[in-house]
Amino acid sequence: AVATDWITPREGLRVAAYALLLASAYWEYVLRRRARTLAAIALERERIARDLHDGLAQDLACIAQQGQRLGTELEPEHPLMIAARNALATSRGVIADLSASTAATTDAALRIIAAELRHRYGLQIEVRTETPAGGDLDPVEREHVVRIAREAIVNAAAHGAARQVDVVLVKTGRALLMTVSDDGCGIADAQRPGMGLRTMRARAAALGGWLTARPRAEGGTELQLVAPARFVQPRPASLPAARR
C-alpha cells in the first residue's frame, strides 16, 4: 500500500521545477535547430548567388556587350538583343534576391533590392527604416516584407511609369508598417487586382496582416502593409553579398 500523503507541497514544487527545466531545454533545442536550418539555407543561397554571378551572369553580360558591336547588323529591338537583355536583367534580379535574403538586416536587404531595381528601371528609389535599436525582423517575416517591397517597386515602374519610389518601414507599437509610394500614373479604385497585387496580399496575410493599395491625391500610388511584428536580435553578416 502507498501512503496517500507521499506527495508533499515540496515534492510538487520539485516536479514542477523539473517540468519547467525540461520545457526550457526543449524550447532551446527547437531554437537551435531552427537557427541551424536558417544558417544552412543562407549558405546555400550565397553559394547559388556566387555561382550565378561568376557563371551565367558573366556570360550574359558578355553576350550583351558583343551584341552591341553588332548594332550595324542587328537592330536594338532584334529578338536576340531583347533576349540577351532580358536574361541578363533576370539573372541580376535573382542574384539581388539571394543577396538580400542573406543580408544582415532588413534595411540592408531593402537597399540591395532598391539598388538592383534602380539599375534595371532607371528609378529614383529612397529607402528609410525605423526599427528598434539592436533588433530586426524575424527571417521569415523579413522575406515576406522584402518581397512585397520588390513587387511594389516593379509594379510602379512597369505598370505605373513611375520615376520616383519611396519605401518607408517603421515599427509602431507591436505593429509593422511599410509604405511604398510612387509618382506614376496611379491605380484606379475599380481596377481589377493583378497577379502581383494578389501575391502581395497573400504575403501580407501570411504575416497576419493586410495590404491596401490606393491612388495618391498628388498622383501615383500608395501601397501600405500593416502586420504584427516579432523582432529578434540580428544575426551577424556571414559572407559578403555577391558582386554584380
Instruction: Name the poorly predicted regions.
Output: 235-244
Strand/helix succession = HHHEEHEEHEEE
**Overall form:** flat
Q: In this structure, how is the largest beta sheet organized? A: 5 strands, mixed
Question: Strands across the major sheet, in which order?
Answer: 1-3-4-6-5
Q: How many helix segments?
A: 5
Report the portion of residues in β strands. Answer: 15-25%
Tally the beta strands: 7
Protein architecture, described:
The protein is 54% helix and 17% strand. Residues 235-244 have low confidence and may be disordered. A five-stranded mixed sheet has the order 1-3-4-6-5, covered by helices on one side. Strands 2-7 form a two-stranded antiparallel ribbon. The protein contains five helices and seven strands, in the order H-H-H-E-E-H-E-E-H-E-E-E. Helix 1 runs antiparallel to helix 2, helix 2 packs antiparallel against helix 3 and helix 4 runs antiparallel to helix 5. It is flat and about 95 Å long. It is an alpha+beta fold and 244 residues long.
Structure described in brief:
The protein has 244 residues and is α+β, with helices and mostly antiparallel strands.
Please name the defining characteristics of this protein:
244 residues, alpha+beta, two-stranded antiparallel sheet, 5 helices, flat, disordered C terminus
How is the topology of this model organized?
Blueprint lengths: L8 H61 L9 H23 L4 H16 L2 E7 L5 E2 L1 H20 L5 E9 L2 E8 L12 H12 L3 E6 L5 E8 L2 E2 L12
Parallel strand pairs: 1-3
Antiparallel strand pairs: 2-7, 3-4, 4-6, 5-6
